[in-house]
Specification:
By secondary structure, the protein is an alpha+beta fold. The chain contains three helices and two strands; from the N terminus they run E-E-H-H-H. Strand 1 and strand 2 form a beta hairpin. The longest helix is centred in the last third of the chain and has 19 residues. The chain is globular.
Length: about 120
């Protein structure tokens, strides 16, 4: 995220059945990007790629819903704490950076994930 200087490197291990067995990150950035990355790594361990993709969509909807809409936090656990980020559109990119990086890694497209 160029506004904050966020830069993360994600590491993921997926087993033959398509289950995320381990995920971690290294990087620097604002508190929102690091907190989101940390909670995401806890949340996705043990989930299948399909479950991650569904959670990605739920998390993204949580952060991008219009202010007067109350998006569902079902299945997001601790990640629900990020619901207030949607009130600060410039910070949505911070909160979703790790999610976009993991999505790109799981798709194995070899590209650097960006939120722009």
């Amino acid at each position: 995220n160029p506004l904050c200087g966020d830069a993360l490197t994600l590491y993921a291990r997926v087993d033959a059945e398509g289950r995320v067995t381990d995920v971690s990150f290294q990087g620097a950035g604002c508190a929102i990007s690091k907190a989101s990355a940390s909670l995401m790594t806890e949340h996705v361990k043990g989930k299948t790629i399909a479950e991650f993709e569904a959670d990605f969509e739920r998390f993204h909807a949580l952060l991008t819903a219009p202010p007067r809409v109350s998006p569902s936090v079902d299945g997001l656990g601790k990640l629900a704490v990020f619901s207030g980020v949607r009130e600060y559109p410039a910070r949505v990119k911070c909160a979703t950076l790790a999610w976009h990086a993991l999505k790109a890694a799981l798709e194995a497209n070899g590209e650097t994930a960006k939120t722009e």
